[in-house]
Fold this sequence. Notes:
The chain is of the alpha+beta class. It folds into two domains: 1-46, no CATH class; 47-97, no CATH class. It has three helices and three strands. The protein has a three-stranded antiparallel beta sheet, with no helix packed on it. A hairpin with a 5-residue loop joins strand 1 (7-9) and strand 2 (15-20). The longest helix is centred in the middle third of the chain and has 9 residues, at 60-68. It is elongated.
Amino acid sequence: MIPSIKVRRSCLGLNNLTSIGGNLLIAGNEAITSLLGLDFIPLRWERFDLLISRDRFFEKGIQKFIGLLHEKSFRALADSFEGYDISLCGKMLFPDNFKQEDD
């Protein structure tokens, strides 16, 4: 018999899959689970890219944001969260000169 699964959304954006074999399973990210003191088992790796059109790239606000990504204080804060790889953060990547190791 397949156990019933209840799905609830929390204020942290986690989806609870409750009581499967007496265990609580939560779909979420490593940063949130580490804040809650929970074990984390990754299901897969996701990469998030920010696309900026060429005609907007040199606008003052965009350049300030990109500059922020290179500041030591930002990088230290981002490094303090578990599960995030910021090694490519703030770099320009093009399909013809970038190959992800997991591909």
